[in-house]
Structure prediction request, 144 residues.
Amino acid sequence: MSPQSRITIVTAPSGGGKTSYICRNYDGCRGFATLKSDREGRKLFLRNLETGQKRVLMYRGVEWTYIVDDSVFRDANAYLCTLDSGLVVLDECGWMECEGRGFRPSLEHFRQCMELECVLSVRLDRLQWYLDFFSGRDVEVVSL
Prediction:
């Protein structure tokens, strides 16, 4: 990440190593990573990179559709929106944010707070939406 870059977007296709990159390079930083619980991917956890605390964010119901625990997003957004300077990391920004859900309140905050330096991971097929969202800001893209 270049020192003058305010927003760094780490991108790769699904399964391309974004979460591994985030956990390897930003463990201990303020922010969150999304982790699968098992090979079947029945649960997704949100892990606080600073404290290591994990909470179930989503789980697959009987019809294999994800059921989202909105309270986890609400609590994470409440925390992230209090940050006003320094580095913050957010893994697995995706379609929910494009639709105004998930971490969208935090992304709005990041876009407005000029003292925050952000690292976001985004699937390659969503990259353009995020570039448009942060247009006019200093954005660096790191492709894995």
Remarks:
- The chain has one domain: 7-34+71-143.
- DSSP finds five helices and eight strands in the chain.
- The longest strand covers residues 86-93.
- The beta strands are 7-12, 31-36, 43-48, 54-60, 66-68, 86-93, 116-123, 139-143.
